[in-house]
Amino acid sequence: MLKCHLSKIMGERKLKISDVSRDTGINRGTITRLYNETATRVELEVIDTLCGYFDISVAELFERVSQNNNQKK
Questions:
Q1: Structural domains counted in the chain
Q2: How far is it, in rounded angstroms, from Cα 45 to Cα 11?
Q3: Could you say which of 11, 19, 23, 39 would form a disulfide bridge with 15 (CB–CB 3.0 to 4.6 Å)?
Q4: In this predicted structure, what is the pLDDT of residue 68?
């Protein structure tokens, strides 16, 4: 299972979903689903855009965790 750290990253930078959507051109609904961790699929272009916008790696945005006990793999 993948855990998305978008809400944490946005919180640390005091950004709102509307700010990120406006600045990146990514659909607000897509950002909302990533923020709430309800997205089931994401375009690679969206991941690339978010990583560029926040100047982070993919590993900082997503983390693979075990479904059984939510521990890091």
A1: 1
A2: 23
A3: 19
A4: 75
